[in-house]
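Hi! If you just cloned this repository, the fastest way to understand the data is to look at a raw example. We've pasted two of them here, unedited. The first protein comes first, obviously.
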Amino acid sequence: MATKPSKDLETFPNPKPGRDYTIRMRIPEFTCLCPKTGQPDFATIQLEYVPDQTCIELKSLKLYIWAFRDQGAFHEAVTNDILDDLVDSCAPHFMRVTALFNVRGGIDTTVVAEYRRETWVAPEPVTLP
């Protein structure tokens, strides 16, 4: 196999570092293992961020997500680990990770974790008539 799972996240220079804009990604095939039973957990990961100087490179993100497949993790922990790793890699102004886990034992779980740089002020939303 030419590619393998990897926790190495790559970035590239933000093409518009002076402009606040939002990048949204949807990762519908996330899997990890339940740390109690070893059974697979399935989730859709939604990533939203306002980049500063760098953006996350998509192939490395795909390989990073793949690296969780054989890892046992509680939903809350894995969501926060993903946020921490992504923030460490690209130092955004703002980032939100939403993990929508499929039903297990009759319960579905959604975990939302956010990072906001203390010095960053979000732009005011524009309301059109």
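Ok, and the second one:
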Amino acid sequence: MGRGPTIEGRKNVEDSRKAKIFTKLIREIAVAARGGGDLATNSALRAAVDKALSANMTKDTIERAVKRGSGAEGADNMSALRYEGYGPAGVALIIDCMTDNPQRTVADVRHALNKHGGNLGTTGSVAFQFTRVGELVFAAADATADNQIFELALEAGADDVQNEFGESTVWCAPDQFEAVKKALLGAGLKPLKAAVIMRPGNYVLVTEDVADTLRDLLDRLEDLDDVQEVFHNATLPDSE
């Protein structure tokens, strides 16, 4: 009878996963810090630092990444790149990367897409199907909680609030994201997720077979060190 993974084995997998996440976050902070190392005036840096703190990154590590990006600890040669393409069954994909070797990155992304029935597109080929927006998701178990989130969010400048499956999702313009988040946090509400994302204008429901291939593709892309975020317009069959 086979034995499952040991505690040490599971810890090694978790440590590797955490290290990969930290690598991506450090890159994001460093690139954002090129716009200045002051969190009060650099909203992109503030968002990146908030994300790192949520992942339990130490303040010392964050400060080093800020210094590296702002030039205080030498030049940083990372660049932010966006690739557009298609996954299985023509699912639209936006793949945001940060890399010091664009040739390596585009080759890795192209290989992942081709292997899963997709292909790399040209700039602008799918971006028109997405809109850059702020998204904050909160648990809202009852109507009272939902109403509180709705009122606070709209008063702070949000564009829309939707409630489904016990969660309230707040949408806002990117330049209103920090103000909306601050207002909701100030009321003691902690988001399950808060980020500026690329939101598709329309979603496409895919079959289970396509969904399985798409999940494999997303896992492959997100496992690449250079890939920061992946956005798509598919609704998976088991999605709520």
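That's it. A detail worth noticing about the second one: Strands lie at 79-86, 92-99, 119-120, 130-139, 160-164, 167-172, 193-200, 204-205, 227-232, 234-235.
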